[in-house]
Design goal:
Length: about 300
Amino acid sequence: MSFKLSIGIYGLENLYGGNPKGLIEVAQKAEQAGIDQLSMTDHVVMGSRTDRYPYGEFPSPPETPWLEPMTIEAAIAGSTDKIELSQGILISPLRSAALLAKQVGTLDALAPGRVVMGLGTGWQREEFEASGLPFAGRKSYMFEQIGAMKALWKNAPASYQGEKIAFDDIYCRPAPETVPCWVGVKANEENSKAIAEVADGWIPIEQDPAVFGEGVKTLRRAFENAGRDPAELQVRAMVEHKFDSDGNPDFQATIETIPAMLEAGATYVEILPLYFVYDTAMFDEFFGRLTEVKKQYS
């Protein structure tokens, strides 16, 4: 079963003494090894109450630096040729639709056909308050944002009329021919309908294939109901990172979860190198092992 490999590059700059330029080298090594995609995480600010994180223990203290994804990926774009540039996720409601459309268009101009937007709503009220933006209604804004961006990319001049976003007769160039927009929300009926209307893919919050597999089924039905081919749906799922009895990351046990993920409908499989790479000299071997995994399960 064919699939693509994605790596989340969160935290890997720390292997370079915190220098974000190290991520360019990571991307180059991943590309040389045949890795299909990289993704970055996003926080504009971080509040002190990380204990409110709704998906388990938050992975880092609040003072941890968070590099801005679009900026870093622009730097990576100029130093790579093939690897896709994505996010897992970009908190898009913290940005206006027009600004994000311009950022995406510019990034695509640097990396034509390689940009895949991974969008989400965020979980911190403090992040929206610090940005002067409403926390309530951020999900509906995100879906409108996708529709508005696609209008700006497709038409010149462009018009869009939504409940929260509206404009007439404006230009936003450069514009990509197409940039897929994937979203990280629960695949309930309401969200699946919205995804099928304006988006192109799904980033499951859940790692269990038995759980996200049900979401894939719901989304495929929604695509059919929207008159779209369910085969167009892209799903990037995160592996469940496994650990041995001593608490050490277990690479073999981790990659053995992939067949069930593919059976559940994943088209991209994402893994976090930070669990397995402790020194920059380890990247070549790690990426080599990943490409062998791809051959094994494709």
